[in-house]
Amino acid sequence: MNMNQRFALAxxxxxxxxxxLSPTPEGLHPIDPADVxxxxxxxxxxxxxxxxxxxxxxxxxxxxxxKRRLNVSMMAPTYMEQEVRTLLDTLDGWGVFQPIVIPFTxxxxxxxxxxxxxDPNYGLEDDVLYLINIDENSQEFGRxxxxxxxxxxxxxxxxxxxxYWGGDPxxxxxxxxxxxxxxxxxxxxxxxxxxxxxxxxxxxMGNYLPGTNPTTLQERADALMPFxxxxxxxxxxxxxxxxxxxxxYAVVITKRLKDEQGNSVGSPYPYINHLTQTESLRPLLKKLxxxxxxxxxxYTFSFTTQTIEADWKALRDGLYEKGIxxxxxxxxxxxxxxxxxxxxxxxxxNTKKHYLxxxxxxxxxxxxxxxxxxxxxxxxxxxxxxxxxESQSYIDYxxxxxxxxxxxxxxxxxxxxxxxxxxxxxxxxxxNVPLPRGSDNNANEVHGETVYFxxxxxxxxxxxxxxxxxxPLLIMGHGYTSNRFELVSYAGFxxxxxxxxxxxxxxxxxxxxxxxxxELVKGILGNYGLSSMATALLEDRAFDQNNDGVKDSGxxxxxxxxxxxxxxxRQFALDYMQLIRIFRTFDGxxxxxxxxxxxxxxxxxxLPSNGLAxxxxxxxxxxxxxxxxxxMTGGSLGGMMSMVVGAVEPHMxxxxxxxxxxxxxxxxxxxxxxxxxxxFILRGMxxxxxxxxxxxxxxxxxxxxxxxxxxxxxxxxxxxxGISPGDTVIAENMVTGERGCGYxxxxxxxxxxxxxxxxxxxxxxxxxxxxxxxxxxxxEPKPEAEAYRTVDTFEEDVSYQGQEFTAGMRLEALEExxxxxxxxxxxxxxxxxxxxxxxxxxxxxxxxxxxxxxxTYEGTGETTGTHxxxxxxxxxxNVPASSGVTHARAAGxxxxxxxxxxxxxxxxxxxxxxxxxxxxxxxGRYTDGNGNPVHLDVENFGNSNDKWGADYPRxxxxxxxxxxxxxxLGGYSAAIFxxxxxxxxxxxxxxxxxTDDAIDKCKSECATDVTxxxxxxCDCANVQAYDVGRFxxxxxxxxxxxxxxxxxTDACLGTNDCESFPAAPEDREATFxxxx
Length: 1076
What we know:
There is one protein chain. The protein is an alpha+beta fold. The chain folds into 4 domains: 1-86 and 95-149 and 227-306, Immunoglobulin-like (Sandwich); 311-332 and 339-587, no CATH class; 678-828, no CATH class; 842-992 and 1027-1055, no CATH class. It is 22% helix and 15% strand. The chain contains 24 helices and 32 strands. Strands 11, 12, 13, 14, 15, 16, 17, 18, 29 and 32 form a 10-stranded mixed sheet that branches. Strands 3, 6, 7 and 8 form a 4-stranded antiparallel sheet that branches. Helix 6 runs parallel beside helix 13 (562-584) and helix 11 (515-526) runs antiparallel to helix 12 (531-537). It is globular. It starts with a helix and ends with a helix.
């Protein structure tokens, strides 16, 4: 018995002995033995194979608000995994949105599951399992939660199957976590020599529905079972919406669930439960679903959910000097620290406000940047460029400044050394323990970080500023690895609706450009007297994280260091909370208080310390802030942060998250977003060792592939001759003894991976033919096997992240990683546990606080409540569209139980049946007039007057969920899925781009010849067609400017000619601008 097994057995015996303390230990109800039972294997390596989440795997802790902490074995092959387990043990409960996994001792009858769980309204009358709130202190005591049992709510099918690096034996798999390979070539049901193509020691039979033999991609996607894992006989379900925090639930498996022989499954014990859970499960007997008796139960277990809200409440109250963390507000006051010069004094010698840049002056500089091939590379002859330039006319001025936000995790230790990412996490128990302060020797001391912002103010002529009122404030969140400069391209379109807009850089985000491009930007803007503007734009929070001399924007944001990812999301939200707090102080009475222009600044008389805070142009009137409307939008990461901030910030009126989503671990296993795949998936799979054959020379190049931050790092280790298809390759970690293995494919490629820490000595050995013990899951070579080649040194010079490895040095792992195989149960478990960790920062988990379940802050007495339009672009697979559906459903925007009378089924089912949630056009669900695979247009916002034409496949009537119904707060909230590209798109094109397409189409179809006298015979320049960028920006601008009171789908939004739209104000005199 190894150490892991001894530890697990001791844990089991101690738990069982707790029941022994009872004079007559009994379960809830006796049960007869069954051939197939729920599996309770405490000796399974590397973790016990038991149903999860499960309070059997917790320990008592008096200091925990739930009286529990997770109890995870610390034994793991790598320090990286040990670190994760250590942090898991700090959690006070299980996830509110993690999958529920139930292993069985034998195969199940899949049809019994399908018969019970395939109704579109999620009826409960015949379900084979239930999830029930059994917490008698909960306001939802007795609630039966509806479950996704492979119903299509959380799809796993990939659009880009072969994205996961070379030598992949499962490169054709339709999923990342479920194996659909059919290895039993002779059909005898036994693993024979030569059948194990991925060298995992398992006969892979394809995780397909029984009785199917799929061949096409569409058939394979439909047959794949995401609710059941054949290899481990594991049932996998997930709640339709997140559960409540700090609440006990019971999972009830009924006798309706059959084994493969048609017999009811049973319990591994003489009772329907483990004896240690009898008392915790007793309330279940009071709340059994209608039609279910205790005699119908095969097995039941309980789990308690973790804390979600307490940290948010403690910190937000703390910012306002309330509660346990009240020092936050005292130590980090609500004020702007600095405004930066934007106009060069030698170019504008008469200016009185060189910190302020007028829209007309910025327009020229923006044009230079926009058309430069090395920067934005826009064509000056396009309508998109014309729209961008015109939008600047709605801008009064731009300012760039900074403020200080409390940073709750350190990046360096007290000696100035970089902390590993797993240590860059927030302190625990924030609702009870004040954050440390005032100690130079405390590495966890809360410190301030400078956060830079760009603020753009609309002209008075087209906003309420003309009435002496502050403009509505719209916060725009930037995308992953992007920066606040995104705002500059879009602010004019929002200013048109009278909205001021502001953007900040997220933690570790900024402009990630090299020195050459930096000087180019400065040079272009310097031509317009704006080199100071360039300098201010380049002030950000990004830093070099891999020693290559270039800042790495957001490289540590989405990673497999799950606790760090959880807390960097929460940190970003805290930065936004501090921003809103600052701008709310601009109430018409507060003053700047400090010289925010810097010492000896010539403009100090314009913004004196006793001037009104929020009066940026010094005219005696507050321009933005106070109790004005506050909204938020943004795309991708910006969309996710809009979702989070909208749910936790009481002073948010309306949000429009674009291409965001919830259910973060579900996003991770399907996203092909650059950076996410490398930082999340590759860290879990790697370090990889990949072989590629040069067919001309016969030499195989051996490379290691590792996550270089959020990029793919490849380094050649050796060049090897004599490798043949079918040969065996074994990588061994010489520190831990862990092994990974694979076979050389017919094309000469191979891939192996082994769990490693940084610097672990590694050997890669090559054997002729198949030399693994048949059926071994530990990559054991046959006793007689002899390697014909071993690579145990660097055979090529390698440079990596500032380190130099010369040929002849001992081979070692360049990065740490878990070495998990694609389409393996281990990778599936990693994904499930990932959701457990990420829950407190997950947009879907927080979504109920937007509308249905407001969160109240005891310190300030304020309550959340935000009008919300979840804008998910159809076919998005960067942030998969299913995650947008997940968030909107959790927010209460998408009905999943009651039928929509237009369709005779719930809206949620419409999104599943129309394959909006699946979002993979390559499956060919729909085709255009030319037979090309496309997505269904479920909204038809262009009323078929778009570039795809009247024959394009569309849902009739259009879905447009929530757009014509008032929400609980008296405004509008909706979930929309606009078609922005026939094959899917992450976000949408800028205003004017669709018009350019329409113009090009008009020209190509024009039957009249172009002449010098008649260059546009078909008047294509004036073609009127639906423009998705114009439509959506106008919709968003109107909606947020109204605080969620106006939500229009008028066709004029797409053609930019609504009567209510203000004309662009005329340019002001240059002499006025230059002297002010």
